[in-house]
Amino acid sequence: MAPDLHKLLRSLRVWDPQSTHLPPFDPSAAPATPLPLFTEWFAAAVAAGQTEPHTMSLATSDESGLPDVRIVMLHGADETGWSFASHAGSRKGRHLAARPYAALAFYWPVLGRQVRVRGPVTAAPSADAQGDLHARSTGALAAALTGRQSEVLDSVEELTRASEAAWERARGEPEAPVPSWTLYRLRPEEVEFFQGDGERRHVRLRYRRGADEERWERELLWP
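Structure tokens predicted for Pyridoxal 5'-phosphate synthase (223 residues):
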């Protein structure tokens, strides 16, 4: 018998106290720029045992403006922006080539927190992309060497053969170049921090880059 989706949905609880702690958040004490607060919240999510806190939703749009979203891994965040990587010929790579603007969303339910980031995206120099790739695991290199991301796959067996060959090369040639591998950097124009509240009085603090590009404006949003 097939499960009743609506019954399942009604049975679920948001921010169960057995697994979630909702810490207080005083926006008046937040730093003047968003990166230090992001770093603090990220570290808190790690300390709280959040599973895969470095994964995030990445939203892009195609040439026609149609949106798409997927989960990717955060590769870094500093003054140059929030970084992620992919093949230039992948769907997200093609989207970013046509419309170099994106949005990110992090969700850490163990603390009832979200962070949303959006802004223009640029490709880092190739040397940075290769350095980032080779600093990761053998599996990451093997996946990159397998290539053909987002192309139509004829069979699972074809993938197995290509992956096995890529793993063999990654183990024997840990510095193997992957020319299509691209490190993207999103330079934030807006960063929003959301702290959940048990009484649904959620705190939302938005940073917006000012006209001089170096100063940030802060404002609260209704939940």
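Residues 156-172 form the longest helix (17 residues).
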